[in-house]
Amino acid sequence: MMIEHLKNNHEGHEGHEEQEFMAFVPSAASWLIVFVLLLAIGTAHAQEQVPVLAPGVHDQTLAPKGGPTIHYAISVPPSYRRGTPVPLVLALHFGGDPGGAGRAMLDILVRPALAALGAIIVAPDSLAGGWSSAPNETAVNALLAAVEKSYDIDQTKVIVTGYSMGGAGTWYWADKYPGRFSAAVPVSGRPTPSAAGWRVPVFAVHSRNDEVNPIGPTEDRIAELKKQGVNAQMVVLTGITHFETYKYVYGLQQSVPWIQQVWKKQ
Questions:
Q1: Number of CB atoms found within 10 A of residue 5's CB
Q2: Is the distance from CB of 127 to CB of 68 less than 8 angstroms?
Q3: What average pLDDT does this structure show over 74-87?
């Protein structure tokens, strides 16, 4: 009887332990849910990446999850090596037909002018109107995040530049995302409505003969920012009309020493 009593107590105790143990062990269904969530997270992260390409200029697309396909051109400098962070330039193109405009912006203006920076340059094609539109804002943020994740980027040396509509976009992006950019270089672009709270060093390039975007608002804004203590500079060109984009290379080149100084002082 004593043996039977001990056996019954032991069996009861084992059953109690098993119940306590099972309370802490996830069911098969729980593990399946965790696995699916991890797989989804991994897939989402994979979709945020872009291919790491050889030096040169490449036409590419990015299809973010739940968003439209982004067409863009990317310039990888000859000196790029994995493990060595390099600067990043966001280049915003002019108005007109957006198809291939990012590549045109790279070839005509930004790459010849800013090659000395040794930067990766990414130039998206507009999805809808100006660079302040909601679709463009979503697309450009997704593209920048993907490039920054895939390539070795020096986060303290990310700048934005652009021409005409892209110049206005440069003012807009530097104003709205001051923590993302170390400098802004708008070319022939109309400034944002207000200079209040401006934080990003800016180097404007404009022609006195620009018949589309008159130089006056840019001159006024640079002077206003200087009064506020902002590092604001300007190069004034003459004899160049608005649609002679390639002639702005010289003006944009003059921003290179200034950008390097901004980076050095950080």
A1: 9
A2: yes
A3: 96
